[in-house]
Design a protein that fits this description.
This is Acyl-CoA synthetase. This protein is of the alpha/beta class and about 525 residues long. The protein has 17 helices and 26 strands. Helix 3 links the parallel strand 3 and strand 4.
Amino acid sequence: MKFNLATVFETVADAVPDRDVLTYEGIGITYAAMDAQTSQVAHLLAAHGIGRDDKVALYLKNSVEHVAALLGMLKIGAVPVNVNYRYTEPELEYIFDNSDSAAIIVELPEHQALLAKVLDKLPELRVIFVIGEVTEELKAAAGDTIGLVDFADWTEQSTERDFPERNGEELYLIYTGGTTGYPKGVMWHHDDFFRKPISGGNPYGPARESYEELGREVANFPSLAFLIAAPLMHGAASYSLFTFLSLGGRLILERDFDPEAIVGNIARDQTQMILIVGDAMGMPLVEEMERRQEELDLSSLFMIASGGAIWSQSVRDRFTKIKPELVLRDNFGASESGNDGEISLDENGNLKMPPTDRMMVVNEKFERITTPGEVGYIARVGNIPQGYYKDPEKTAKTFPTMADGTRISVLGDMGYVHEDGSTVFLGRGSQCINTGGEKVYAEEVEAALHGHPDVADALVVPAPDPKYGQRVAAVVQLQPGAAEPTLEEIQEFCRQTLARYKVPRTLVVVDEVRRTPAGKADYRWAKAAAEAVEA
């Protein structure tokens, strides 16, 4: 059978109706209440012409409405389009146009203002659902051609589940990144999404094989309270959202990534697990915990998990110093591959994945590499996306087919097979620095820099070098009040854990390292910052 995400949610809601599905800023909502609300949202969308395969853009911060809108559109087979709420006008125009968005759901006045500027360039757009007050600027831009609907009208709709039949082949769309160019829409079928990004509804054991099994097991599974620190528009956050919905868990959301609020509310919300995106979120959270360690009640917290970015050992060590029994998990995956599993550091500092049938290493001809130590591209197999929306050229490059007919996902991550059968992750090939023939992977140097007591954040990029072709350049943000270190001091620190050729030869200190709201690195900006100093 094939799973549909809306039916998965409804199955869980029927199994545990009285459990809380969501805690938002301290307020709880049960599965039964959320199911009724999402059915009403689905009817609201349908009443205004939205149906199967229509793209609906979520131009929203974290909120109850964000979750309800996402689940509601899935009930009628509409396709979600995640929108980075920090996008500029050209980026917004691109994503709304590229996705063929038929509807947009928006809230904040500043977002409405930017949306108003691009409406005349969106031929597929038919209706805008507004949470809260509609600005005069948006009213004027919409005119008589684009419908404006008060999202609160969902309260007047039916709670019945009288929706069209579902088959598991409905589309789920995730737009990725955008720090090195405009984002790409990754196309997942619901069934593939259920089986890979959300681990078949059971990340702790065998995948569920039927809705009946799912409902039965959820009723017997204890509710876990899981805080998503990342914005819901981030791929890792959506994976976690659906993973814990399929387990009958309780999602905890804050409006924004606010370390003070997240840490301060752990006791109030009885938070058990926290999802972060690498050091960009891990570092400010651990700093807040350190600052308030004596006053905090962390008794409920037992796990911190990271996904979407490498999590350095130095930040992990600081968490365990605060609470030694914390379980720290580093999830490896991507929008184009789903959840690949847990990555860990071995005694030699290598990032390793245990042996798995969901991953292999291939050469440039997409032939499998079995020789231990031979570097190639890490390829994901099994339930993978259909490709990139409206981009057959990039689809063919990222989702090639091997000679035996196996479709794989190749994202540019470099690695090799270890003698024990595990996969060693080196880093993204596009961020590989070739310095005099030696290859340096940015993530490894960044992890070393994050261990420096005066470094708040760091990105590593190539800078031009007349002798070696490229040199390793570190773009660094310092801790508040820290004295600016010299290049020699940074080099001496890095030599403790890195080979000499990997040590930065250029140091650029900036006020703030630029990242997306989800913590993704902006390497294009960092490279420009390093080259400006070199010039």
